[in-house]
Amino acid sequence: MTSYISNINQYIKSLDSDTLYALHSISSEKVYKKGEYLLRQNEVCTKSYLVLSGISRKYYLHDGKEITTELFFENDLAISFESYTCQQPSMEFIEALTDVKVSITYYQAFQAAKAAHPKLVALDLMLAEYYAMWVEKRLFQFHTQTATERYLDILERSPHIIQTIPLTIIASYLGISLETLSRIRAKI
Amino acid sequence: MTSYISNINQYIKSLDSDTLYALHSISSEKVYKKGEYLLRQNEVCTKSYLVLSGISRKYYLHDGKEITTELFFENDLAISFESYTCQQPSMEFIEALTDVKVSITYYQAFQAAKAAHPKLVALDLMLAEYYAMWVEKRLFQFHTQTATERYLDILERSPHIIQTIPLTIIASYLGISLETLSRIRAKI
DNA sequence: TCTACTATTTGACCTAAGTCAAGTGTATTG
DNA sequence: CAATACACTTGACTTAGGTCAAATAGTAGA
């Protein structure tokens, strides 16, 4: 599954220049300042954001607490999946944790491009498959790993996360309280 | 998201007869007896199973315990998603909980059909999107609901599950121990 | 019907993680 | 520099749910 991203990249590289041009022509760059929102709750996610630089996160509120569902780094595609797919109001927020440069593509424009360039449908499929596998893996981790194991996993796989992001957000991404995360860190 | 299934069904109905025929011509029916396996761990999920009748489940083993990840009823598409998508060995088993009649479509045949009938790529995309939203929702429930709430949710939404399926399996689907489920039931 | 299983319940105790509250440290800014 | 805020830690206590073990149902076959 990890290699699936390289599949996607290979597929993009293999696209004819006509299709690639169609894709580029509907994308535009934008910079969000740290703390700004790319998407707010109840808004419809009408755009996808390909992160060019910086870090952002997706979260929702539950009982007044923030539950971080995804962290977006360079080359990640930041959307609220259900809101984007169904073009319905989003439960989730997407927030810039640092200054973030993104390439924006509107849902409608991409749909039109898919109609004109069928190869983009296959690309969309690969992206949806990748996301489904990613969520499956996250669910799997919550079932099989303790909080400590999940923390160590991040620490090993993506140490840059720990350096850059406040512990409150890491804790909420790990599905634990800030205090518990602090204790886990003290033990190690 | 619930309505997304009807989107998919509408889309299937809207397909031209040529595409529909291509789809039907690569599918075949089969019956699995209660207790038989549609897929075993380490096998590659080379087929998709559209459940026509009966119930089956998908699970994996962790520390000797079975973790049920999905229950399949009539009209559900039973696959091990990552194994099917990447054509890699599966972590998961798919087991018939009752006698199950399925419509089988081979991965390779479906890929070929997609190449010949581009509208099937869009169908595949919708199915992947639906699954991604389904897994997202399940993750969301594990984050926001207690075991009792999750049980009540099933009880309300799909009471037939509780009647037909042994509690051990329901407990493992809810992510709790059999004993805890029994206590939850005693309280209500 | 009796036996042997399997399914479910109940009890006693344990543990990971949450909650509330009170620190300490470290920025940032007026 | 003081002051306010933010980031993190630590302590004391609570709780949901797990584990192990034993007791009851149910149920299918000899």
Notes on the protein architecture:
Two copies of one chain form a homodimer. The first copy, chain A, is of the alpha+beta class. The first copy, chain A, contains nine helices and eight strands. The first copy, chain A, has helices spanning 4-14, 17-25, 81-86, 107-116, 119-144, 147-157, 159-164, 167-174, 178-187; strands at 27-32, 37-39, 47-53, 56-62, 65-72, 77-78, 93-96, 100-106. In chain A, a hairpin with a 2-residue loop joins strand 4 (56-62) and strand 5 (65-72). Chain A is globular. Chain A binds chain B through residues 1, 4, 62, 67, 69, 81-82, 85-86, 118, 121-122, 124-125, 128-129, 131-133, 135-136, 138-139, 142-144, 175, and chain B through 1, 4, 62, 67, 69, 81-82, 85-86, 118, 121-122, 124-125, 128-129, 131-133, 135-136, 138-139, 142-144, 175. The structure holds a DNA duplex (30 and 30 nucleotides).
List the helices and strands and how they pair.
Two copies of one chain form a homodimer.
Chain A: H1 4-14, H2 17-25, E1 27-32, E2 37-39, E3 47-53, E4 56-62, E5 65-72, E6 77-78, H3 81-86, E7 93-96, E8 100-106, H4 107-116, H5 119-144, H6 147-157, H7 159-164, H8 167-174, H9 178-187
Antiparallel strand pairs in A: 1-8, 2-7, 3-6, 3-8, 4-5, 4-7
Helix pairs in contact in A: 1-5, 8-9
The structure holds a DNA duplex (30 and 30 nucleotides).
